[in-house]
Amino acid sequence: MTITKRQLDKLRSDNWYCSKLTNAQxxxxxxxxxxxxxxxxxxxxxxxAFWHTVKKLVGG
Length: 60
What we know:
Oligomer: single chain
Number of helices: 4
Number of strands: 0
Largest sheet: none
Low-confidence stretches: none
């Protein structure tokens, strides 16, 4: 799974967990899971890894 800033912004407005993210945490997620400039290895993450990371960041 990769994510764009637009997708993350939509999730921050629609999803309870993502709405709790600070701007710094959102930037960190984009750094790890984002498409630009290039995602970190393994390049395509399973969706579960994204949600695990979000929950870990917001303490859920």
